[in-house]
Amino acid sequence: MVRVFIGFHGTSKASADMILLDKRFLPSNREDEWLGKGIYFFEDDPDQAIDWCVRARKYKEWAILKTIIEAQEVLDLTRKREWDMFLSIIKQLQGKMKQTKYKGKRLLNGVAINFICQQFPYEVVRAVFLVPGRSYPYDITNIPPVQIQICVKEERCIKSIEQWRCSNGGF
Amino acid sequence: MDFKEVVEQINQYLAQVTIEQFERDLQRAGIEQCPDIGEEADSEWQPERLIVEYSVFEEPYSDLTNGYIAIANGEAA
């Protein structure tokens, strides 16, 4: 079954111009990325992408790109069954790591996902995170601020790219 | 793809793989950039910095006001 997602990617205006010109994204290769190597989007929520540009990256000039993503092989960690199994894999990897020279290392999510994707051809990984750097009145509500992130592993899944908004107010 | 199949295949892999090969596969996945155990992540924008405390009493779904999730960034109780 093909699943379709609308993803918003925040970046500097200069990078956005390059992406629009080349009609392709450059995947992140940092190993400490939240969901491993790939191209990152906030699902259905451009304001999260703006927040990322302004608060996290502190870009003076930024742009938000809107994309349509289609994928068949999705590792969806918002689903209970997949999350439970993901946890089971992490525990097993951690157990085996104790026998290696990496026994002192903390296994980050992104590395565990890279490992899984080495074994299986997932095209997209999807997960929910609490919004970083924001506290909330948990004595008033138990609903935390969250964001859904999508990491596209296979560039062919990105079907369209357009500029959604930029820092000077343009579209 | 059935995620259960993925787990089974990884179980099988872990049962059979040599330590040397496992270390190479971990390296390919980026293990060397992971912090050491006990080390802090270097940015508040890393999910590892979000210390999540989920406190529930007997039945998590019976009374949701008993549950809270706090981002323990110094402000959480």
From TrEMBL, chain A:
Q: What domain of life does the UniProt record list for this protein's source?
A: Bacteria
Protein name per the record: DUF3990 domain-containing protein
Q: Which organism is it from?
A: Moorella mulderi DSM 14980
Automatic annotation (TrEMBL), chain B:
Q: Which domain of life is it from?
A: Bacteria
Q: What is this protein called?
A: Uncharacterized protein
